[in-house]
């Protein structure tokens, strides 16, 4: 074990801290985390922890969500510069307010990939793992859904409700990279591989996939499948996560990125050095307005009440 990992572990123990990391984090961050998961899994873990300090290795909205669910705890993020999720910032609160005025009969579901002030205006939040179930749980015929238009498309195919995307072209810049040409190219190279893509991919890519799954869903599918080859249509670090899980079982499977340049730059801002500093200096702390926390928690709790 390296010296820096030892120091991180010692600081965690001294301060009763827990490290949560998203599936898109660097390998060294995934290895030192107490829990690695997708947005839904991290929401659940954040709510369940009895630690005094939560160190969140992810982008801005994720650390905010942990704070909303743990307003009495200190929530830290190891980096504060250039850590914003571009998609989350595509749906500011004023866009939601305007859409609600235009569609007063609609309920609002926002992706957890949104800022706290946006969540505070929603009836419920969702993740890519449960978006369709959250929408179908609502007692309404029309749903304002944002910010990812492609996830809205995924939901629209699984509900009888009218889905109105807000904003009109919300998207994840990483998943927008994937094209039909990419699918055709990799399928030619690996004709026996299953294609797994994320619901943030464009509709035409989703329609060509064998399975459209959240990152957590992709992990479970690969681990439980009898197949040996998989094309992974999401951020490349998910392949790292799956390989770490395969290490535990001793299984060998072939994992092929749909695109090798599918990289989320903000996710890569966190390093071991920054995690150590974060624990030692207890920075950077997430602070939110109490009224925002109260309202946003209602939307998140509504999501968590929906059976997976």
UniProtKB/TrEMBL annotation:
EC number(s) per entry: 2.5.1.72
Chain positions recorded as [4Fe-4S] cluster binding sites: 85, 172, 264
Gene3D superfamilies to which the protein is assigned, alphabetical: NadA-like (3.40.50.10800)
Main location as per UniProt: cytoplasm
InterPro entries, A to Z: NadA (IPR003473), NadA_sf (IPR036094), Quinolinate_synth_type2 (IPR023066)
Pathway(s) of this molecule: Cofactor biosynthesis; NAD(+) biosynthesis; quinolinate from iminoaspartate: step 1/1
Cofactor: binding comment: Binds 1 [4Fe-4S] cluster per subunit.
Coiled-coil intervals: none
GO molecular function: 4 iron, 4 sulfur cluster binding; metal ion binding; quinolinate synthetase A activity
Annotated residues for binding of iminosuccinate: 22, 39, 111-113, 128, 198-200, 215
Keyword tags: 4Fe-4S, Cytoplasm, Iron, Iron-sulfur, Metal-binding, Pyridine nucleotide biosynthesis, Transferase
GO CC, any one term: cytoplasm
Domain of life: Archaea
The UniProt record lists the keyword Iron: yes
Pfam families, per the entry: NadA
Cofactors named for this entry: [4Fe-4S] cluster
UniProt-annotated location(s): Cytoplasm
Catalytic activity: iminosuccinate + dihydroxyacetone phosphate = quinolinate + phosphate + 2 H2O + H(+)
Gene Ontology biological process terms, A to Z: 'de novo' NAD+ biosynthetic process from L-aspartate
Functional note: Catalyzes the condensation of iminoaspartate with dihydroxyacetone phosphate to form quinolinate.
Family note: Belongs to the quinolinate synthase family. Type 2 subfamily.
Classification via NCBIfam families: nadA, PRK09375.1-2
Protein name: Quinolinate synthase
